[in-house]
Amino acid sequence: MGERTAGQGISKDVVIEDGVWIGTGSILLPGTRIGRKSVIAAGAVVTGNIGSLCIAAGVPAKPIKNIS
Length: 68
Description:
The chain is built from no helices and eight strands.
């Protein structure tokens, strides 16, 4: 067995823009982007991009409400 018994690692940036709130226990997968002033609910799993000014929740996380 080599050093990496679990396989090759993934190296992609996670971008969190200004004013974002991230709830406890949330998971942000590699390559995701959270738009400015968005809210990620507790326990959400972000697998893709979340736009600006919205609330996202769920597994996988999806926008559920826009913030006006």
